[in-house]
UniProtKB/TrEMBL annotation:
It is an enzyme of class 3 (hydrolase). Keywords: Aminopeptidase, Hydrolase, Protease. GO terms for molecular function: aminopeptidase activity. InterPro entries: DppA_N, Peptidase_M55, Peptidase_M55_sf. This is D-amino peptidase. Its EC number is 3.4.11.-. It holds the Pfam family Peptidase_M55. It comes from the Bacteria.
């Protein structure tokens, strides 16, 4: 069995604010070590269960956070920014199942450091389904027929996963008190939980169906600021919906929608507020 893992940072145990997930801040190096340890707990459990390969994609910010020298030696790691498929780079039909670790809730929702790709996004939609990073990434997995069998993160990410993916296994490593406060397990206890939940998820794999995306999906992104919507709508093929901050794109498939989302959000980040 070939297992794919996408590892984000905001949903890692004990991490609650920007000083812990921003590489320019003082708490970041500690967070990298905790993130790597949490990934290792899942990786070790997967290999112990009998997985033949574990492919890990570093999925936070510049995507060079995981400490490769401390990862399980049999792991393969995709690291670095500007990936064509960002948080799901390397995921394809050769993967038997996917696990998302360190995930958080979508923008505009309760949850520790909740957001969707950038802080200028209020909502993202695939047709009429509102999605965050978790849902969009699960749709890409579904395009390849790959089920997302486990999501680890805070309690709100778990609720979001359960609402989208029937029978998914969730591992809650911290409970939301506010967007920057959580009641967290220690890394040792989190690792114990993740090992247990990984085994449960692998045993339950056949009961989880891929989240199949719609054919020719309509992507709609609602931005917080009109300037962000203007920038995003510079991408050819987009439409800025009159009287809103929503930019629409008609995609040929979910892969094109995903790459369109990456371009639109990157453009939106060029907006200034002065």
């Amino acid at each position: 069995m070939n297992l794919y893992m996408s590892v984000d940072m905001e949903g890692i145990t004990g991490l609650v604010d920007h000083t812990q997930v921003d590489s320019s801040k003082h708490n970041y190096e500690r967070s990298r070590a905790i993130m790597t340890g949490e990934a290792n707990a899942v990786i070790q459990a997967a290999f112990d269960y009998g997985c033949s390969e574990v492919l890990v994609n570093d999925s936070h910010s510049q995507m060079n956070n995981l400490l490769i020298e401390n990862l399980h030696p049999d792991t393969t790691l995709i690291s670095g920014g500007a990936k064509p498929y960002s948080m799901v780079e390397g995921l394809d039909e050769t993967c038997s199942a996917a696990i998302f670790v360190g995930y958080h809730a979508r923008a505009s929702m309760k949850g520790v450091m909740s957001h969707s790709m950038i802080f200028g996004v209020r909502h993202m939609y695939i047709n009429d389904v509102v999605v965050g990073e978790l849902g969009f990434n699960a749709y890409v997995a579904g395009y390849y027929g790959v089920p997302v069998i486990m999501v680890a993160g805070d309690d709100q990410a778990a609720l979001e996963a359960e609402s989208l993916i029937p029978n998914v296994t969730t591992a809650v490593v911290k409970e939301t008190i506010s967007r920057s406060v959580a009641k967290s397990l220690t890394p040792a206890k989190s690792a114990e939980l993740l090992r247990e939940k990984t085994v449960v998820a692998l045993q339950n794999k056949e009961h989880v169906k891929p989240l199949v995306p719609p054919d020719h999906p309509t992507l709609r992104i609602e931005f917080a600021n009109y300037g962000q919507a203007e920038w995003a709508s510079l991408m050819p093929g987009t439409v800025l919906e009159e009287g809103t901050t929503i930019v629409r794109y008609e995609a040929k498939d979910i892969l094109e929608a995903y790459r369109a989302m990456l371009v639109m959000t990157e453009l939106a980040m060029r907006t200034t507020f002065c």
